[in-house]
Design goal:
Layout: H1 4-13, H2 15-33, H3 40-47, H4 56-77, H5 81-84, H6 106-119, H7 128-151, H8 155-162, H9 170-178, H10 187-191, H11 199-209, H12 212-234, H13 259-266, E1 273-277, H14 282-287, E2 294-299, H15 302-317, H16 320-327, H17 335-340, H18 348-355, H19 358-363, H20 370-382, H21 388-395, H22 400-410, H23 414-423, H24 426-432, H25 447-460, H26 468-475, H27 489-497, E3 502-506, H28 509-514, E4 521-525, H29 535-548, E5 549-559, E6 574-576, H30 578-586, E7 595-601, H31 608-614
Parallel strand pairs: 1-2, 1-4, 2-3, 4-5
Antiparallel strand pairs: 5-7, 6-7
Helix pairs in contact: 2-7, 4-6, 4-11, 6-7, 11-12, 15-18, 23-25
């Protein structure tokens, strides 16, 4: 026997088919039992003594369909089609703006009102449509809310208290009007929420012909088009599709970029929206300590976002010391039990992934990435040529002269040179990472020589005791006295209380930014993604970034092996701040990157760098 929870899940997953069934059933009842009855709108006009003007209802319906289409496309534009049309409960982020100030479910409201309009052109049996859909939508919404309470605590609880579920109240209408919202539409929102648009001209034709049949014939193709797209986007893709090494697992379980230099470059303020590549999730969690309004976490690899979800769940549900144990910073004997307490906070996709990978959980999730496995391989091989005692000696002093002597005497030998040429070679790394990562590199680039020099710099020139990147690479874990910013005790409560500001997106940078409104993002952390795309794609992505960025916005990115800076064609609109970038790069604890770039978006052709440099950024620790 099917349980109630399974039944409502099936109803949600098949909601498009249930909706069509309600409409078809009502139409059949109308045709069979009420074929001689007048439409509801005629009965209404007859009651008020205005039957001779009843055809005006077609024009009223056309106007209402226009308003409802605008509202549905507006609500859909604030999300993504993948979220709205998914056959499973999904949530990009907690949206509390625009039509979401009116009701929590403006798309359902738009549909309910549009269907109510259509029901007026049926006999009295048409009243079944709004009644049945109201009951059905309430069931679906309650099912969604269970998931949303897990995805967005505590923000969703506050949202529920302030905004009505489906029917606007005087209070929500007043709040909506007071907010003076700007109507926003993007291509994705328009294309995938325009199902009632053809009814607008359809009802106009119906007015002149005094026939609902013409309105229906013109309007229904838009609904069918929407249904086909809904099904193609909403259905989960086949798991049998071939995936590259990049997308079949967690690639990075930690971020290998120093968040401190990004924080100093950004100078994040309370009204900032920060866009960041997810990667291991560490750095965007660190950005929360600077109190931005929102953080957009985007990654093309869904497993990176599953990792972020689990880290966020640990922050929400575990005390600080237990969180460190679960993540893998400290020893832990009960990670499986701790994971059980976090599962309710995960999306279905993330839950499926972690349930199938218990060994990654047992190790601690900061150690589960393919890149971290590679670091482990290097570390184990390094033990044969450099003793653990020698490695520890480097971390015992910050005196650069002492470390230079130690490096020359005990590190820089023939065995080290062979090690770098073999294990840090392009051929070895290609076995572990997708060959696409190396597509735009120069053919004669010496991987071993490049990374060997970076290691020399880190060991002999940079501060070493606080360098958690180097400590992890060489010793296999962090020192609890020197952790990444997001794992420090003093930042724990700040991050925990601001997790609801994070919006997780699985998509490419270009596709996502293409859907965003102009001047909507202020900070961009692209890590080093630009060197894995062609120069043409790089230019296109920068142009889309400029459109989406507010004037004066800041973007940072890095070059590991492929040099990338904005093309000459964008000079004037993108201004490099080389002085600040150079100073920050000199103290970058993540020593592997060859170049660090800070660029400012200049939309008004002003001296943005001078203005940027005049701001006294407050360094946050």
């Amino acid at each position: 026997m099917i349980s109630a929870s399974k039944l409502i899940r099936y109803e949600f997953e098949a909601r498009i088919f249930v909706s069509f069934s309600i409409v078809i059933l009502t139409c059949v009842i109308s045709a069979v039992f009420f074929s001689q009855s007048s439409p509801l709108y005629v009965l209404f006009f007859r009651i008020v003594g205005l039957e001779r003007y009843s055809s005006v209802m077609f024009l009223i319906a056309s106007l209402l369909m226009f308003v409802l289409s605008v509202m549905r496309m507006w609500a859909g534009s604030l999300l993504t089609s993948k979220t709205v049309m998914s056959f499973r409960v999904k949530s990009d982020s907690l949206i509390i703006s625009g039509p979401y100030l009116l009701v929590r479910n403006p798309i359902y409201l738009s549909d309910l009102l549009a269907l109510t309009v259509l029901s007026f052109f049926l006999p009295i049996s048409g009243i079944l449509i709004p009644v049945l859909f109201y009951i059905y939508y309430i069931r679906l919404i309650k099912y969604e809310e269970i998931a949303f309470f897990n995805i967005h605590p505590p923000g969703y609880e506050n949202f529920v208290e302030k905004i009505p579920r489906l029917i606007p109240t005087f209070r929500s209408i007043a709040g909506f009007i007071k907010s003076r919202p700007n109507i926003y539409h993007n291509k994705d929102g328009i294309r995938h929420n325009a199902l009632y648009c053809l009814f607008i001209p359809g009802f106009i034709v119906g007015y002149f012909t005094e026939s609902f049949l013409y309105a229906a014939l013109i309007g229904i193709p838009g609904v069918i088009d929407w249904a086909v797209i809904h099904t193609s986007i909403g259905l989960p893709k086949s798991s049998k599709q071939k995936q590259s090494k990049v997308f079949n697992c967690v690639l990075y379980s930690q971020c290998w970029e120093d968040p401190q230099i990004d924080r100093e470059a950004f100078g994040i303020q309370k009204n900032d929206t920060v866009f960041s590549i997810t990667s291991g999730g560490c750095n965007l969690l660190s950005f929360l300590t600077d109190d931005p309004e929102f953080v957009i976490a985007l990654d093309l690899n869904p497993h990176q976002n599953y990792l972020l979800e689990l880290k966020m769940a640990a922050f929400r549900n575990l005390p600080y010391d237990k969180m460190l144990e679960f993540l893998g910073v400290r020893k832990c004997d009960n990670r499986k039990e701790l994971y059980e307490s976090l599962k309710s906070d995960l999306s279905e996709s993330a839950l499926n992934y972690w349930d199938k990978n218990p060994k990654q959980l047992e190790r601690g999730i900061i150690h589960c990435g393919r890149y971290e496995d590679y670091m482990g391989l290097l570390r184990n091989c390094l033990r044969f040529i450099i003793s653990k005692k020698t490695i520890s000696q480097f971390f015992e002093t910050n005196d650069t002269e002492v470390r230079k002597i130690l490096f020359e005497k005990k590190w820089d030998n023939i065995r080290w040179k062979i090690f770098t040429r073999v294990l840090l070679s392009r051929k070895t790394m290609s076995l572990l990472f997708d060959e696409a990562f190396f597509k735009y590199l120069e053919a004669d680039l010496s991987f071993g020589g490049h990374f060997s020099e970076k290691v020399r710099t880190a060991l002999t020139q940079l501060p070493i005791r606080e360098n958690y990147f180097l400590r992890y690479i060489l010793l296999g874990n962090y020192d609890v006295k020197c952790l990444p910013p997001y794992l420090r005790r003093e930042n724990f409560e700040l991050i925990r209380n601001r997790l609801h500001r994070i919006r997780i997106v699985t998509d490419s940078c270009y596709n996502f930014l293409k859907q965003q409104p102009e001047s909507s993002i202020t900070k961009f952390n692209f890590t080093n993604v630009f060197e894995w795309i062609s120069e043409e794609a790089f230019t296109e992505l920068l142009e889309e970034t400029i459109r989406v960025a507010k004037d004066g916005s800041v973007m940072t990115y890095r070059n590991l092996l492929v040099p990338r800076e904005h093309p000459e064609a964008l000079s004037g609109r993108v201004i490099s701040n080389k002085d600040l970038a150079g100073r920050l790069h000199d103290k970058d604890l993540s020593f592997i990157y060859d170049n660090y770039i800070i660029e400012v978006i200049n939309k008004k052709k002003k001296n943005v760098i001078q203005n940027y440099q005049n701001i006294n950024w407050k360094r946050t620790e």
